Amino acid sequence: MMSLLIQGPKQPGNDIDVYLAPLIEDMKKLWSPGVEVYDAYSGENFQLRAMIYCTINDFPAYGNLSGYSTKGANACPICEDDTQLLWLSNCKKNVYMDHRRYLPKNHPYRKKKKVFNGKTEERTARKPLRGETVFSRVENLNVTFEKFKGNGKGKRKRKRKRTGTGTTPPKVIWKKRSIFWELPYWKHLQVHHCLDVMHIEKSVCESLIALLLNIKGKSKDEINVREDMVEMGIRPEFAPIRNPGKRTYLPVACYTMSKDEKTKFCKCLHGVKVPSGYSTNIKKLVSMKELKLFGMKSHDCHVLMAHMIPIAIRGILLDRIRHTITKLCLFFNMIHSKVIDPEVLDSWESDIILTLCQLEMYLPPSFFDVIVHLTSHIVREIKYCGPVYLRYMYPFERYMGVLKGYVRNRHQPEGSIVEGYATEEVIEYCTDYLQGVDSIGIPKSRHEGRLVGSGTIGLKKIIPNLEDLQLAHFAVLQHMTIIAPFINEHKRTLELSNRGRSNRWFVKEHNKTFSQWLKDKVRASYGIDSVDQAVVHLGNGADDLAETYQGYNINGYTFYTNQQDGKSTLQNSGVTLIASTEVYGDSHDTRVRIAKESYYGVIQEIWELKYDSIIIPTLKCKWVDNQRGVKVENDGFTVVDLSTNRYVSEPFILAKQAT
């Protein structure tokens, strides 16, 4: 990134190729013949080769880097000249709808007229062009890069020269032949420039919220688009009603919220509390006075789109539009998964096309700008380039914030960045030779080096009651690997001495007597050198004095007690535990079934149990009844009723098990 600091008050635009030329020369060399590199592990030299398999930019930079014209009638760089454009004469803008072309030929949506564009759809979308085909279109297209020259009228023109035998098509969709085509393998790639999902998601989120809340100046539902709908002959019930000498009335649509509904929507987001490090404080983005959201960053839009909006619109919008918006949000949630089954990608692609068609049925045409259309091509890029998180722009955006922090002279920002970066690099190098000095730069995570666990706030020393201490001690023994052989031995002993008993009885008896049995066994082994001292410490039981905390960091998570949560703007008291459960039939059924279930709870207390030199953090939780308090809705959301209470005999878990 430092090599791309380009001087000047304006960006280079299409002339970016001039600055990329040294990079391309190096990449040609790295591809063939490569660079000889020494492998210190094997002690041998090997030929290192490297390639650029794609680039990632926001959409305006996409056009400058690829040479494709990302504006006008053929703005989609994947569809190219097969892009379907609709000009809204009253809104004065291009929209990109007609997603029914991607549906199967016998799909019922193809025959509907009034809910779409007033026409049936018989066309079929063309498959994206292969790399060789795209190269043939730009092969003979060359551009001489020159600086802007004034024409004496205050305007600037770019002198562009085209050479070669290629003919210029009626609509020029390629502005230049990108310098990346000089790479020998570039024409064989199916995806050359990846779509920036981060900015696509941000744009879709902002458009959706502006439409739902009818934010003045940003909403896509205004009188102009209603008049365009009249001209298209669709949804006549939404035509503007003009009263002579009075204001024009816009009939209520399925996505229109009343003031009370807007208040409920904003109040829901205003009251959201999220775990530490999950996102910014959503409350700061909501204006209850103006009933709108403002100041949203890219990651804020990701959190809103993936999780918050489907929750906020529950019980507000009509079911048909709510389900459609929820499916759009769930799509953005799924594509950000770190593990994706390739077999589900075809269904994801079909689902997003169907969702876009349903949005066309309900939302105004002005909503469907080119960014909304690009969501239909995201799954294709996942197939070729892997999960979206591997192409995130978030790290680069954050690092750009670090570089901007180096600026001290706003008249010369590039020089300030270079000077600040070089200074920090030198100091970082020097700190490696100094003892007791922390390195500078990006702050370390609060969880770094704390996998074992560390209490943060509210330290107290208590003497817990005997019953709770025994329950916590048994929970520790049950999940210690070194205790597992003793657990199996105790169960065998019970089975041999109590033949004919049911499995349920054996479990209860084991839970009741194991701690004392292990303690007696450990005491009988005193003086035997072969006994593991950790087993001795654990078998003797925990100290009567325990340390409690209101906050605790472990395994990259921050946990609070429910009491501390009430004082905080964050919510860290909720826990999820995935555990294997032994399920029995009736009292006469001896069969046992092992089932994995998710258990949900709220932290009541955080204890550190001390076993001589061994310290083990535990969480005392109030657990939700999985039968009465947990429900999975049709939209895929898990609803948990925290007022229910069950599993009171097993309140403790190890802190390292919780998520």
DSSP strand count: 23
The main sheet comes to:
6 strands, antiparallel
| Average of the residue pLDDT scores | 87
Strand content: 15-25%
Which structural class is indicated by helix and strand composition? alpha+beta
Number of helices: 18
Radius of gyration, in Å, reads: 32 Å
Low-confidence segments, ≥5 residues, pLDDT <50?
154-170
Can you give the helix content as a percent range? Answer: 25-40%
Q: What is the molecular shape?
A: globular
Straight-line N-to-C gap: 36 Å
The figure for the number of domains is 3
Give an overview of the whole structure.
This protein is of the alpha+beta class. The chain has three domains: 10-195, no CATH class; 197-391, no CATH class; 454-657, no CATH class. Helices cover 34% and strands 15% of the residues. Strands 14, 15, 18, 19, 20 and 23 form a six-stranded antiparallel β-sheet that branches. A hairpin with a 5-residue loop joins strand 6 (149-150) and strand 7. The radius of gyration is 32 Å and the shape is globular. It starts with 15 loop residues before the first helix and ends in a 5-residue tail after the last strand. The model is unreliable at 154-170 (pLDDT under 50).
Give the key terms.
three-stranded antiparallel β-sheet, alpha+beta, 3 domains, six-stranded antiparallel β-sheet, 659 residues, single chain, 18 helices, 23 strands, globular
